[in-house]
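question for whoever is on the cluster today: can someone run the full assembly for these? two chains, 605 residues total. i dont have access anymore since they changed the login thing
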Amino acid sequence: MTAPRWLKTAGFYVLVAIIFLQAVFPFYYAILTSLEDGQALFDVNYLPAVFDLSNYRSMLADGVFGKQILNSVFVATVTVAISLFLAITASFALARIRFRGRGLLLLTILSVSMFPQIAVLSGLFELVRAFGLFNSLWSLVFSYMIFTLPFTVWVLTTFMRALPVEIEEAAIMDGASSFTIIRRVFLPLLWPAMVTTGLLAFIQAWNEFLFALTFLSTDSQRTVPVAIALISGRSEFEVPWGNIMAASVIVTLPLVALVLIFQRRIVSGLTAGAVKG
Amino acid sequence: MSLTSDAAATGALTPTKPKASRLSRERIRSAWLFLAPMLIVLAAVALYPLYRTIYFSFTDASLDLLGEARWVGFRNYLEYLDYGNGQGEYFGLLVDARWWRSVWNTVWFAVVSVALETVFGLIIALVLFRKFPGRVWVQAAVLIPWAIPTIVSARMWAWMMHDQFGILNDMLERVGLIDTPIAWTASPETAMIAVIIVDVWKTTPFMALLILAGLQMVPQDIYEAAKLDGVPPFRLFRKVTLPLIMPAVLVAVVFRALDALRVFDIIYVMTPNTDSTRSMSVFARENLFDFDQFAYGSAASTLLFFIIALMTISFIYLTRMNLEGDER
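^ ran it for u. tokens below:
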């Protein structure tokens, strides 16, 4: 039963290697495929055999894809800016002021974040059309609030609760109004939390599919997830896999870079958002 | 888990009682002022649309004639059509075999994928919890699947699972596990397996991180004591570690389960129009926008909402979540 020590260590490192490989391999293979063209695509390679940028060139030369990237950048940035702005005052109230109904309110916000998106789709579709926002990027900025807002409020509330009371007391004694306290005391302390929350909300908005698929109808208005989902060939045998992989790498590489740079913050932000309580 | 600061805040302010109460009244008023914009936006994007979805499910609304929707009662859910000759038939969502198939698919998908994610997440968390050279790199690598957009992972895996040129079949053939290529996404027997593989690959990192956070909260002196007493590692894990991280694991499981029940993207992109993988969300969207059955699709959305709401409520009740963050 008791295996020798070196065997245990070896087993552990094999496990580590498996975990590493399974996580990295599919993305590595997407990059590999994106650099192949023509016939090379249909030979299975495990190591880079060719280095051909023509898939990237054909994706980027086609002006629509560039426009679609800008659409995604616009939607995600504006969504995050508005959510953070609304969430900062709201989370101050939820974290720092005791009032009746606070628990119920937090519960409501939590349950909104658990809404199935499909449950609001018909109602949102009606609203979007009534406001004349159909096929406009603003329809996405508006509808994405349903998941970015509860998330940012929830995480910022958790972060704000963790700050010590003394700083706030001193400001109250000096007669500062609540708004001044938020602006002068909490905002400077909350920068790191806001960067984390903003980044996570950005990723969610960047990746959203269902609303973008439903509320936008023309190619030049689409965001990148929908664009990638809709790339198809004339028949099952003509699917341009090289182009699809090139587009996938283009929209994913920045995200992977951001996640790796902000790794620590993201882990703490995710856990603050989920394991509260 | 130090969320108890504001209890101390009010305690500190009580000595000057009359002033404090005026102050706190002002603060409460400003609290609602601060909350108002956020609450108004949430009501506009969540509550009102939800109410409209439920309303549409009781009408005969169609995509182009939303404004002229007429109330039809429960007809979208269940209706008995009398043929007048003593015979009749039931219609509606509650007797729709395609709907029940999608309910079954969704539940099956959720149970299998969340179970696998929990096991793999636990293994990865335990590995990352140990200190070893290069751990930072492995942790970074583990985050990559999570960072990749769902649509992109669906496309990437669809390519890897290609029946003729896919690398997955190539690997399995080389190892000798299969001798003819599998049509992963195209054949009904494997379509669900394919979807589950992608979902497990993509979301296990999330599970692993949450469990890792739970592990890091376990006081380390327990392990030193156990080491001195010579408790075997597996027993230590079963008797000490597992019970201590159980709350974190449970929260992660519930979050993932609620997420899995509304699955849409992966299935819509990888295996469109297959009875064997159609989920409740896919069913609802097909009816809403592809089949011109807006009211019927709304009814399906409404049912899905109530299923998830029921689960959420029972989860909050069962775990007795402490929402106030104090009085503990």
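summary bc i know u wont read the tokens: Chain A touches chain B through 105 residues (CB under 8 Å). Chain A has two domains: 5-51, 63-273.
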